[in-house]
Amino acid sequence: MNWDRIEGNWKQLTGKAKEQWGKLTDGDMAIIAGRRDQLIGKIQERYGIAKDEAEKQIDDWSVRVDDDATERPTPHV
Length: 77
What we know:
With 77 residues, this protein is an all-alpha fold. Helix content is 74%, strand content 0%.
């Protein structure tokens, strides 16, 4: 998923992010506010992993989020 879309839909995606990274708190989510660099830093901090590993996890997660979004049928108006 395009990161601009993730940032724009962050409030809707925080649940999915917390499913992926359960150590992130609601406060972390508010600080992150959809910013990729903040998410990388918080994942590094909470999980004690390197930046490149955090980036890989985020890239994998964003693909899954995009796949989930495209699998849902578009609601009819």
